[in-house]
Hints:
Elements lengths: L6 H28 L5 H32 L4 H27 L1
Helix pairs in contact: 2-3
Amino acid sequence: MGKDLNYGEFLTGLPLAVVIMLISLLIVWRFGKKRRWFDERSKRVYGQAMSISWLATTGGILIVWSIIILYEGPGLAFWLMTSLWVLHIGSFGIGTTIANRKN
């Protein structure tokens, strides 16, 4: 952390932000349940949107990875993109395993 950072403000603001986020999530969840935002149709639409987003992210990572290899070689950026790729594919594998066990 930088030397200009006030740790008291940071350690006060971080928990406060988490509490505000949780309260907002609770309000949206209750409001959404009353308006049926979380029914089967919305879950299917959300699942399809996540699938399209996942494919776009996969393509983007591969393109950026290729550019990094061509212009910079195996430096820090290459290893960061490789770790991002491993995390991306690993989370997909874990998610698939969990989804298959539920169904």
